[in-house]
Amino acid sequence: MSLPSIQPRSTSLTGPACALWRRLGVLLLAVWISGCASLPGEVDRPVTLALASPQDTALGQAMQASAVAARTRNDSGFSLVNSAELAFTSRMALINAAQHTLDIQYYAIHADETTERLFDALRAAGERGVRIRILLDDFNTAGKNAQVLKLAFEKNISMRLFNPLPGSRGSLFLRILGSLKDADRMQRRMHNKIFVADNAVAITGGRNLGETYFGQGQGTNFIDADVLAGGRIVRELSRSFDQYWNNPLAYPVQSLMTAAQIEALKQPAKPAASAAGKPSPSPEVSPADGSAAKTAPAVPALPDTTNLLKLNWTWAPSVLLVDKASKIAADADEVEQSQDTTVDGLLQLMGDAKSNLLIVSPYFVPGDRMLAQFAAIRQKGVRIRVLTNSLASNDAPAAHVGYARYRKDLLGMGIEIYEMRAEQEGTLSSFSGLGSTGSANGSRASLHSKIVVLDDVLLVIGSMNLDLRSQLQNSEVALVIRSRKLAAETTQLIEPAMAKGAYKVELADGQLVWRAPQGSQLQDTRIEPDASFALKLMLKLIGPFAPEEML
Questions:
Q1: Fewer C-beta within 10 Å: the chain N or C terminus?
Q2: Vertex 262 angle, CA 241 and 113, to 5°
Q3: 454 - beta bridge partners?
């Protein structure tokens, strides 16, 4: 008796299912390749140092003249950078004024039209003989932002990547997946932000480089702050830069990629830009009547530069807080156990407060140790006010998870908490525009400034957040300036934003209440304001489990 023949079932896939499996296969292959990649062992890393004689440059002489005019004994001058426009134009001014050197250190530089204007100015500076060193943390140098690395192949421009991750730069997602086997090292990032011209004038603070940090984003713009510095403190910033630049964790771009490999990652060009320098928005068509919906107005173009000498300079005593590059090293836990970090130094200063503390920190995750320090400060009768992001305004919602754990404890000890509104009606160019009326280009606000004002006399401004990541994992830098004038100027910038651009969070019968900003015509609420259902659900689901040092 013959058995009936059985035809094997076809295992071939067609259509969407086939495409899905192919994409999955490519993804797994890319992750496997990334996991097998390694950094070069032998790297040519010539040692270079900051300009030795800044007093002979035009910028150095201008700072000396400013000090003489101020009739001061202080050796360092400062000017608060309180708007996105000034943040851009002051950097352009430093590039254009530099005669010998430019030293630039950042956590992130985004490839967009705004930074391209900075890049054009840097290329022109290199052509006229200025030596340019750019030190960039490697984490964000993937996808579109990989094109920033082409600057390394320009005349008189050297670029190094700090603590690079091996593997593909096609997308940040693939880089993270490929580095999960070394997650602890991936978490340690160089977060410093320094921009120095001729070792004579510098700018530092919370900003990275990109359109969203200069008020030019169509989606979210960051509310940030910097400070310009001149004199002796700049030389300390330059020494810090040199220590990172000459560190074994700083890899020249040429040791990691060729110019052709970077070009191969280039993404397709966007639609032609409008006269305002932004992609022309496509009108949204209403299905009901076919009419075009209202589109967001174009962002006003930034000016090219500013006259630094016309700014209001204040000469004052100052101290530099900066982490050592060894904080990022593989054995950092052992190396740094006996060394104070930038955040530790800031906490020590805060512990000396006698009357009041004003804190601005976009990512505010105190942890148990920091919480105990706040409690000790409050026991002395010190008033503490904190401005941070709301769940809706936070560009890193996971950080809000860590902060939310401590919110009731902080309020219970009498700390005043204000949370930034995401939806703002005014200009996003500075703190002062928050909560005001006027045209806004349809953008949302996200707090990114890192500021502490202590007893109305001490101003701290830098790259650090008051969270465990800044304290334990990232390297940070901050300026501590003793000046009642600058402290008052900063406070007068922040307080109106707290009143009109932020919710005040309070406890009522043991429950959180968000008090609406002054003049906003909004209602008080007992749920996270302006946040989507998905964000609120995330807060509840991962809140109890996420490790704080990773938030």
A1: N
A2: 75
A3: 357, 458
- Tens digits of per-residue pLDDT, 12-55? 444 544 555 455 444 444 444 444 568 898 899 999 999 999 99
Tokens of 13: 């896939």
Note whether 116 and 260 are same-domain residues. yes
Burial 85-119 (b: 16+ CB within 10 A, else e): bbbbbbbbbbbebbbbbbbbbbbbbbbbebbebbb
Nearest to 86 by CA among 290, 373, 310: 310
- Give per-residue pLDDT as tens, 470-521: 999 999 999 999 999 999 999 999 999 999 999 999 999 999 999 999 888 8
Task: Give every CB contact of residue 386 below 8 A, 6+ residues apart in sequence.
Answer: 359, 360, 361, 364, 410, 415, 416, 417, 418
Q: Please give the Cα distance from 435 to 226 (Å, whole number).
A: 21
pLDDT at 299: 63
What is the three-class DSSP state of 421?
coil
Among 264, 295, 311, the domain boundary falls at 264
Beta bridge partners of 418: 387, 504
Spatial CA neighbour of 372 closest among 389, 395, 347: 347
User: Which DSSP category does 156 fall into?
Assistant: T
143: tokens are 């996808």
CATH number at residue 141: 3.30.870.10
pTM score, two decimals? 0.87
Q: Terminal CA-to-CA distance of the chain, rounded, Å?
A: 70
